Amino acid sequence: MRSDEPDEMSGDLPEYAERVLDVADLIPSGRVMAYGDVAEWLGEGGPRQVGRAMALYGGAVPWWRVVRSDGVLLAGHELEALARYREEATPLREAPRGAEGHLPRLDMKRARWDGRSSETGTDGGTDTGDVAHN
User: Fold this and answer.
1) Helix (H, G, I), strand (E, B) or coil at 42
2) What pLDDT, on a 0 to 100 scale, did the predictor assign at position 121?
3) How far apart are CA 91 and CA 106, in angstroms?
4) Element (H, E) at 83
5) Are 85 and 32 in contact (CB under 8 A)?
6) Which residues fall within 8 angstroms of residue 120, CB to CB, at 6 or more apart?
7) Per-residue confidence of the chain (134 residues) as pLDDT tens digits?
8) pLDDT at site 12
C-alpha cells in the first residue's frame, strides 16, 4: 500500500491529507486559500501535495475553496465551482472577451483568506498573501 492511500481495513486517511481537509473546512464561505497557502498554514508540504490530497480525498469538504493561486477555476469542475462561488458571493473577475470559454477567475486579492479571522466581510483577503498559522 502507498503511504498516500487510505488504509482499506480501517478507512483511515493519511495524516497529511486529514490535516489538509481540516484546513479546507476552516475556510469561510465566500473566501478561498491557494494550495500553497494551505501548505504554508500547515508548515509542511507544498502546493502539489495539497492538490494531491484534495484530488484524492477532498470530495467531503468545500473543495472549491482550495484553489490555484492564479484564480483559474479547477479544470473539469469549472461550472460546479462557479455555481458555488456565485452562491457564496466569492469575488470573481470577469474573463476577457477573447478568453477561451469566457469563464471568470477568482479575484484572489479580494477572495483570499489569510486564516486569521472567520469573518467573511467584503474587504477580501490579505494583500500580501501571508497566511497565519494556528
Assistant:
1) helix
2) 42
3) 6
4) helix 78-88
5) no
6) 28, 29, 30, 31
7) 444 555 444 457 899 999 999 999 999 999 999 999 999 999 999 999 999 999 999 999 999 999 999 999 998 999 999 999 999 999 999 877 766 667 899 999 999 998 886 554 434 444 334 433 43
8) 72
* pLDDT value, residue 67: 97
The closest alpha carbon to 111, from 29, 23, 21, belongs to 29
C-alpha distances out from residue 58 to 63, 91, 113, 116, 123, Å: 6, 22, 18, 22, 27
What span, in angstroms and rounded, lies between the C-alpha atoms of 42 and 93? 28
- Count Cβ neighbours within 10 Å for each residue of 107-131 and write b for 16 or more, e otherwise: bbebbbbbbeeeebeeebbbeeeeb
Cα torsion 57, 111, 92, 37: sign: negative
d(CA 54, CA 51): 5
How is residue 95 annotated by DSSP?
Answer: P
Distances (CA, A) of 16 to 91, 117, 126: 29, 23, 25
CA gyration radius, the chain? 15
